[in-house]
Amino acid sequence: MKKSLTVNYIYNMIYKILTLITPLITTPYVSRILGVENIGIYNYTYSVLSYFVLFGVLGLQMYGQREIAYVSDDKDKKNKVFWEILWTRIVTTTTALIIFCIFATFTNYKIYYLIFGIELIANAIDISWLYYGVEEFKKITIRNVIIKIIGIICIFLFVNDANDLAVYIMCHVSVMLIGNLSLWIGIKKQISDINRPSIACIKHIKTAIILFLPQCLDSIYMLMDKVMLGNMSSMEQVGIYGQADKIIKMVVTVITSLGLVVSPRIAKSAKEGKTNEIKKYMYNSFYFVFFMAFPMIFGLIGISDMFSIWFFGEEYEGVAQMINILSPIILFMGLNSVIGWQYLMTVRREKDFTKSVAVGAIINFILNAVLITKLEAVGAAIASIISMFIMTIINFYWIKDLIKIKEVLIRIPKLLLASTIMFLIIKPIQFINLKPILITFIQVGIGIIVYVGILIILKDRMVNEYLSMITNKLKLNGEKDKLLKKELNKNEKRK
């Protein structure tokens, strides 16, 4: 049965909101307890681990989601595809784990790397791609919420001083392992029989590798800054850059979460040759990105000074500047997610997306090599902005026959105007003589009211649609209450 796109997005958003809230709870505590150098070590070692995770998963996450979406209505085919992909994933991640353990023994951060190795085990048994493919977002959401809460509790219980970096990593990977194991509970509703590994598993590797290439390049691209900073600068610079990057990525997840919901729909529409439906999904996705990205960019720049003081602590001087420089990435990553992951990868145009990511990665590497030596973390941030912008332009070129760029850009002025006015109003609030945390909350609250209020005045389509939906829902509930009261009165009169 085709599930509601809105319901799926709400389920996914619940998790994404929790993903936003979790760092708001844990990061101020962890940043102060571990210190900027340990945070730098964590960001550096996790970035290196991510490369091994990437090669272990080998593109099977997105490939699995896509292939399951294609056969979701055929239980026998779904069962066969699931086990073939799973066995393939277990082999590739186990191979990556062995190589990673060998690598770890020859590094200065051996203990941290070996603990991180548990994440590779967790990835081997991860079957979230199955549930995304069949649009079972409720199960994923419930799992993720519970696991996030457990993770928060573990951090506050066990991470108590600067020597607890290994404990902090253990909390991270253990919770992930438990979460992925929990997905196997109730799997019989989707998968009935257990299939043994066979030679048929090999056929998935070729296609998965095609998907893997853009994922590989994209991950190298996104992790490159911290790895190069760690090798060319200091762990303190990695710590500052990593904390700012964390805030940016936190915000981006709200925007990119739409892709997980829309991708299965685009896959089905592509299979059925419904180009107009694909266009509709794409235009709506672009508008959603602009609607969310502009206020987030201007909002982050507006609150960064006060926010970084109370959130990270005085030790993290320079994070506010990093946030300001990196904030445009929110828009570029949102647009690239729609074009690349939501569309190109889904309709099997992996080669086009690979080319754009490759260009972005090469430019980012060259700019990092030049700018990090002169500007350290600031140089890495500038390199990311420039390379991501170029990547976005290339991606729009790939869809010029599907999407009219003018129809995409025509919706920007209202959103940009509302975001600018919001910024001009919230920025001066930081000079009020109040506690930084209180100032931040006031800025956020007023910012939301101003942004939405201006869009209501400007009669923005998305805001008006949601207002109409809420109004109609309230009217419907009111009519139901009236009917219920009438029925109760009738029953009382009969008595």
Describe the overall structure.
This protein is mainly α and 495 residues long. The chain folds into two domains: 5-457, no CATH class; 463-495. Helix content is 82%, strand content 0%. It contains 18 helices and no strands. It has helices at residues 5-57, 60-70, 75-104, 110-124, 128-133, 137-158, 165-182, 202-232, 235-271, 275-311, 319-326, 329-344, 350-375, 377-398, 405-409, 412-426, 436-457, 461-494. α8 runs antiparallel to α9 (235-271), α9 packs parallel to α11 and α11 (319-326) packs parallel to α14 (377-398). The longest helix is centred in the N-terminal third of the chain and has 53 residues, at 5-57. The radius of gyration is 24 Å and the shape is globular. It starts with a helix and ends with a helix.
Q: How is the topology of this model organized?
A:
Blueprint lengths: L4 H53 L2 H11 L4 H30 L5 H15 L3 H6 L3 H22 L6 H18 L19 H31 L2 H37 L3 H37 L7 H8 L2 H16 L5 H26 L1 H22 L6 H5 L2 H15 L9 H22 L3 H34 L1
Core attributes:
2 domains, about 500 residues, about 80% helix, mainly alpha
Give a short summary of the structure.
By secondary structure, the protein is mainly α. It has helices at 5-57, 60-70, 75-104, 110-124, 128-133, 137-158, 165-182, 202-232, 235-271, 275-311, 319-326, 329-344, 350-375, 377-398, 405-409, 412-426, 436-457, 461-494.
The span between the termini is: 44 Å
Overall residue-averaged pLDDT value? 83
**Element order, helices and strands?**
HHHHHHHHHHHHHHHHHH
The biggest beta sheet is recorded as: none
Number of strands: 0
Uncertain spans, ≥5 residues at pLDDT below 50? none
Assembly category: single chain
The number of helical runs is 18
- Give the overall shape: globular
Helix content: over 70%
Radius of gyration over C-alpha positions, nearest whole angstrom? 24 Å
Strand content: under 5%
Give the number of domains.
2
Which structural category do the helix and sheet elements fall into? mainly alpha
